[in-house]
């Protein structure tokens, strides 16, 4: 087993880099399609706040669906457990990430908060209880990362909104089943802003340390979540965090994780560390191809797995 | 946090017992419907072989789908990884446990080895490579438990075979896609015999200790599986071990587990202990209702979770 | 066989009336739920313009999906065959009338122009080519019926728009597949206005005489459609005109027909007559229960069937 | 409009022949794949028994699913209407011809008797009421055609049985829902024998004259079906006789018809004539490509359509 340090991370990136070229950069909006495919970064943050990093770990990218963990975290602090989970489930979908099929069969209740439908319901709930949900999210993330300049990429958010037909269909379908309270375009705007946040691997590792640290972030008095809530989110990430590739990811990497189509993945070793990787090319399930490989290598080299 | 001992287990059963009456005993075959609903047992086996137990922990019951972990284990020792996983997937199904819908859409490749379709493919593979797959399974289980009298319940096996129309449909559908090599009734017979094995909680806890112990069972020279294979099975149990309730189980219990419609559940704390519970009444997803509650209580009381 | 006259029609209504009470008035919008369930009317128009009638044949009601035949007729006069049918199919759906399931599996191309999705595409096409699609439809219907005061029920149209979540979902889903060109709310408005048109059985029978008369309406110089186009619409009505009850309707009635959830049905005996019936209570497929029975009785009594 | 005679039929075949090469001969069993693609025949039988023909109208071929009309006819003479239609529906499937998806969603009741599932249920019902269902079918067909040497092609029947996995899956699925009474392999054998019958266009046209003639066949005292039953079968053929291409066939040809993957199609003009065409290459829906075109040309040339 290897010690965790920058050299190890560099070594891991060296091993993962040859995979670049075998995946596909997300291209459903131009803003994402333009990201250079050869970017590759990794950062690890341990419980004491030490950060190890390698490659393009300080370059910001679009966190996309990684934001679904943040919106769920926010909702868990504003809603009672029973309110939240009557509107969204906790089970893996067994379907591509934006299918309407299942949503219709299951009467407008999304399977979990990490598929688009589920995250839209969560945003709808935030819209109801927060006066300024976009501003509030920025405050949370800036506080978790101690980086006051983290922001939305309004160009990406607008571009997503311009290509939002399928997400609009999902939201309207939920509305038809009575599971969507607010104005559809308004919630879509919030949702796409959350997706458009740009953060680096270093910032993401710091941001999600609370998931490795029983709900506590660095240098903050108040806990973000209770230890139990933290375990719950980690459980949900293992079963549903990687679109339709959660089983494969658990099998290979053995950590709770959440990916975004921007090529980022965050993962945690509970009680030890949070990790962020970035490589824009995706595999068939929509998860970063080289990023997953880097996490698998890291898990092997440091001998960590929740299993 | 409480120390693990018989008193703790008895206390947990006392708390879980009031749930009896809120679930439903499986009744698709008469032999299962006749099991007394008030049975409740638990057993824990730690890495050194110590067994703690409470309630009806020594009464044998039909292990049903828990056998799917054993058939997969056997297949992993007889097939190369690439051979095995080209015929069955690793992803949660997001569907009730014996649906043909998904199997047809996905061209006859079952989502994972813990749904009926997947376990049937695994049995088909064992049929190909083992000369006496039923006898071989008994040898494996007798060796793992050190109980030479563990056996099939031929009455249950026959009864299942007499009600096997849906499983036959599943097998024939896979055959139509070229993913089933042997005679359908022959493989069904093997499959139902595996399901009909009767074991007690104490025997199950001992049997599955290898999943908590890096692949090694008690008092056996040779490892059952490699440490990596063991982690892989545990990963698969978390994402797919509880039919369409895997997400909820991970959320509440936080351990890899596998259930059977006989009301048994096995679970492991990797590196520490294996656990078996039994209560015949099932929840809406087909998992033991009081059994799940007992595992949740145990996890809380001893402060264990993989998350 | 009986001669066609008012007495026959009255006799038929007498036989059909006892069915009232066994169906259900559509209640998804209040404006429809309020229609008195005991209304029952029938009108027949022969090629020479003679009208026979009985019961509430002159009371206007919401024609709802019967308007889908009119929007298709209009589209067939404004689009070349190949343009039209590349955006909508000609096959029965085998599904309830507003399912998204099939639409997603078939990449946003609706099965036929008589399900909601298909009619929405047709309205989208009319929006593209007509400067005032709502006004134009009124002109067409007023001309076909010679009743200049036929109009939309703006109360019903508004009420439908207020409950349009599912149709919005359908339109957005088609947009996500590139099969919807115009602004969704604008097209929905047009669509709901068409549905909200109020006409009586007598007016409907006159209106649809062109389908019995090789495309020609009464007292108009120019044909509405060519004889071939007329046969095509009749064919489409037989295979897809009655939601998921087209097979049963063909079996029992043996005429091309189209129903609406307002309880109206129009039908034709090609080369002989057009028929309209009205009874607000619907059967399980969404077709007028007593209305279907009246048509079946009429077909038997006058010995007419296309089969 | 042209007069119906052999010259007209030859002219039609000349026009349709260039389509040969654009379809695909069924190849799921070797016996069908070997049929020469360039075969093309047509025969028409008028109510007085006159037969017109052109091309390969006297060469026998495998009638395949055309036999589903015969097994339904036979069942309608042995079962009361209510018994028959509680086990099989009357609606188009909106699905490829051998899908299990819909059958599972609809609890094992096939949509109509012309898809495989429905025909299997019909054969299961014949198995229950007939002592020798294969022999009885031959007697019926020999009597209808006055050709005592019509027979099964046992080579084809055996080949189908050897490739019957999907049909076995369908039958077992229905059995799991309680909608299949007899031994699955036994019923499959009967079903495949029916499919394997070999007949020529001339024989088919004669055989199905009863569908054009109010249920009466040539030179037989007793009617095959009542006039009402005859209309019912014709209705069912229009809505469900052409797999997932019934809408298109009604649109283009305008006659009740039933196709088989051997490349044959039978069609009727009620009250006038029965028609059979043969061309082995199929279109995307599984219907004879040139055969459909020939029927469309015939309908145009003689000016016949039920619409």
From TrEMBL, chains A, B, C, D:
GO terms for biological process: glutamate biosynthetic process; L-glutamine catabolic process. InterPro entries: Beta-lactam/transpept-like, Glutaminase. It holds the Pfam family Glutaminase. Signal peptide: none annotated. NCBIfam families: Gln_ase (TIGR03814), PRK00971.1-1 (NF002132), PRK00971.1-2 (NF002133). Belongs to the glutaminase family. This is Glutaminase. It comes from Erwinia tasmaniensis (strain DSM 17950 / CFBP 7177 / CIP 109463 / NCPPB 4357 / Et1/99). The gene is glsA.
